[in-house]
Amino acid sequence: MTRSTSNTEENLSALREGYLLLSSNPERAREILEDLAKENSVMSMVYLGRSYAPGGKFSEDFERAKMWYLRAAEQGSLFARYSLAKLLLKKKYLEEARRHLELAAEQNYPPALHELGLMYRDGRGVEQDIVKSLAYLRESSALGHIFAKRDLAMVVRKNNPNAASYVLSIFLLVQSFLSLFRTFFRREDSTDRLI
Predict the structure, then answer these.
(1) Between 93 and which of 47, 88, 120, 137 could a Cys-Cys bridge form, CB atoms 3.0 to 4.6 Å apart?
(2) What per-residue confidence (pLDDT) applies to 187?
(3) How far is CA 66 from the centre of its chain?
(4) Strand, coil or helix: what is 189?
(5) pLDDT in tens, 122-132
(6) Distance between CA atoms of residues 51 and 136, nearest Å
(7) What is the pLDDT of residues 144-184, one digit of tens each?
């Protein structure tokens, strides 16, 4: 189950301060976020994981990034579990990444379903299986994942060279572009978004 940050984070002002300091004062941000993590702040754990991951605000440290993402995932964050899986994929820990993706997919987390679909499409860390790929991509697409719609269209077209699949793939591509367009131009009324 995904937890809403606004419902579970007890010290949003400190969390916001730590997040904002990541750009200007990473050391102070680390102190604040680690203090919040000691109080079981899931988002502080996610921010710490992201900050230690490649391209993050701290010196890259795979083990710390993994630890923080795992702690947040164990608290129920599907985003953290997915982020952990992506980190593991980058480091070529394919079996461990797949296990975390499957745990998130069991809870219908669209990005995890999409990534599993790609893994089965490409045979990355698993035996290539277009049927499983299509199943994961369809499920992710049905849950609104824009890139799953695009990738589903491409897998359908590539693996079914007939007129019906061509029409279906065009329909799916148009659907994904329309979803992307709606998402891009949607106005957010809230400025309190933390990630």
Answers:
(1) 88
(2) 56
(3) 14
(4) coil
(5) 999 999 999 99
(6) 30
(7) 898 898 898 889 878 776 776 667 767 776 777 777 777 77
* Sign of the torsion angle spanned by Cα atoms 44, 49, 54, 60: positive
Residue appearing with tokens 């702690």: 71
For residue 89, report the phi and psi dihedrals to the nearest 5 degrees: -60, -40
Q: Which residue has tokens 């164990």?
A: 74
Query: Nearest to residue 133, comparing CAs of 116, 154, 153?
Result: 116
DSSP code string of 30-72:
HHHHHHHHHTT-HHHHHHHHHHHSTTSSSPP-HHHHHHHHHHH
Choose which CATH entry (1.25.10, 1.10.238, 1.25.40, 1.10.10) describes domain 1-94: 1.25.40
Dist CA 11 CA 40 (whole Å):
11
Q: 119-136 in b/e burial notation, b at 16+ Cβ within 10 A?
A: bbbeeebbeeebebbbeb
49-101 tens-digit pLDDT: 999 999 999 999 999 999 999 999 999 999 999 999 999 999 999 999 999 99
Q: Is residue 181 within 8 Å of residue 150, measured between CB atoms? A: no
